[in-house]
Specification:
alpha+beta; DUF1737 domain-containing protein; DUF1737
Length: 54
Amino acid sequence: MKEYKVILASSTLDLEQKVNDHLKMNWQLQGGVSITYNRGRGSNEIFYVQAIVK
């Protein structure tokens, strides 16, 4: 059975580090990077997301 995981980070550098760590543990990328914004109630956060499978 395959495992599915979503990696979430608040910067591209953080996402790169997390993804690289998982790739070393034989996880594989599933699709491309997604970017989402949280602009509610004065927030201006950006999140970078990558799905991976094993």
